[in-house]
Design a protein that fits this description.
single chain; alpha+beta; Rossmann fold; Tumour Suppressor Smad4; 2 domains; six-stranded antiparallel sheet; 18% helix
Length: 259
C-alpha cells in the first residue's frame, strides 16, 4: 500500500532515539495526527503505547503502525534496518486486531473503562489469595477460583503475560480469547479456557474488602475492583504492519516451537 506522509516516533531509550534521529534525517517526518502511517521505534511496550495513542487521537480508525525493534522485546516489531523504509512500508501486510473493552466497578461503586490490545488482568494486592467468581455470557462457569489472579488475552497478547502464566498461544484470526488463571490454588488443576471472541467474561471478586484485587487493561489500572466485565470491541480496528516474511501469524506459530 502507498503512504504519502510518515510519522516517525521513538521510545526514550538511547537505541531508539539514535534510530529516530537517523531515520528522520533520511526520510522526514510529520506529526502523527497528520500522517498516513506511523513508524514506531522501540520494543513491544512502546508499540502498545503508540497503538493506544492512535486510538485516542483518531477515534476508532487508528492509523496503521509499522514497528521496528529498538527495544528489549520485539514480538510486535519488524527487524530494524535504515535502508528501504518506503519500499518496506509499501510491501507490508496488515494485521487487524480488535482490543478488549474493560468495564470495572470498584468497591465504592465507581465505574471505570479501559481498552486492552494485549490483555485484561486481575491481580491480588494483599498477602491473601484472591477469590473470583467467573461468568461467561452471564452464565456462571466457576463459583470460586482461589488464585493470585486471572486474565483474558487477545491473540496478539497471547504471547505476552498470558504465555508466562502458562496460557495458550492463539493464532491471529482464530476467533478465540484466552481465559487464563494466574497461580491457581483451587481448583489446582484448572488451566483456563479458550472462548469464542464474541464471549463476555465477567469476574466477581468474592470478599473484595478482605481480599482486595486490582484490574489492569494494558495501561489502565483500577484499584479495589468488585466486578470486571471484558469483551472484544469490534467497533475499533487496530492495524499493525509487518514485513511479508515476518507477519504476526508466522510469529505466533513460530513462538509455539521455541525451546
Amino acid at each position: 500500500m502507498k503512504f504519502n506522509t510518515i510519522a516517525i516516533v521513538g521510545a526514550d531509550g538511547p537505541e531508539a532515539q539514535a534510530a529516530l534521529k537517523s531515520l528522520t534525517a533520511r526520510y522526514g517526518t510529520v506529526p502523527p495526527e497528520d500522517a498516513d502511517v506511523v513508524v514506531a521505534l522501540g520494543g513491544d511496550g512502546f508499540m502498545l503505547q503508540s497503538l493506544h495513542a492512535t486510538m485516542d487521537s483518531n477515534g476508532n480508525k487508528g492509523r496503521p503502525i509499522y514497528g521496528m525493534n529498538r527495544g528489549s522485546v520485539g514480538f510486535l516489531m519488524n527487524a530494524f534496518n535504515e535502508d528501504g523504509l518506503l519500499e518496506r512500508l509499501e510491501a507490508a501486510e496488515p494485521a487487524v486486531v480488535h482490543p478488549l473493552s474493560m468495564a470495572a466497578t470498584d468497591t465504592n461503586g465507581a465505574e471505570h473503562l479501559g481498552l486492552a490490545i494485549n490483555e485484561v488482568s486481575l491481580i491480588r494486592k494483599s498477602r491473601q489469595a484472591a477469590k473470583l467468581r467467573i461468568k461467561v455470557d452471564g452464565i456462571e462457569r466457576m463459583s470460586e477460583l482461589i488464585c493470585d489472579g486471572a486474565l483474558v488475552a487477545t491473540p496478539a497478547g497471547s504471547t505476552a503475560y498470558n504465555v508466562s502464566a502458562h496460557g495458550p498461544i492463539i493464532p491471529i484470526g482464530a476467533g478465540l480469547l484466552a481465559l487464563t488463571p494466574i497461580s491457581a490454588f483451587r481448583p489446582r488443576r484448572w488451566r483456563g479456557a479458550l472462548l469464542p471472541e464474541t464471549a463476555e467474561v465477567t469476574f466477581e471478586v468474592i470478599d473484595a474488602q478482605e481480599r482486595p484485587v486490582n484490574a489492569t487493561a494494558d495501561f489502565t489500572e483500577v484499584e479495589d475492583v468488585a466486578r470486571v466485565s471484558i469483551r472484544q470491541d469490534t467497533a475499533i480496528d487496530v492495524t499493525l504492519l509487518f514485513d511479508p516474511e515476518h507477519d504476526l501469524d508466522e510469529r505466533i506459530v513460530m513462538e509455539q516451537f521455541l525451546p
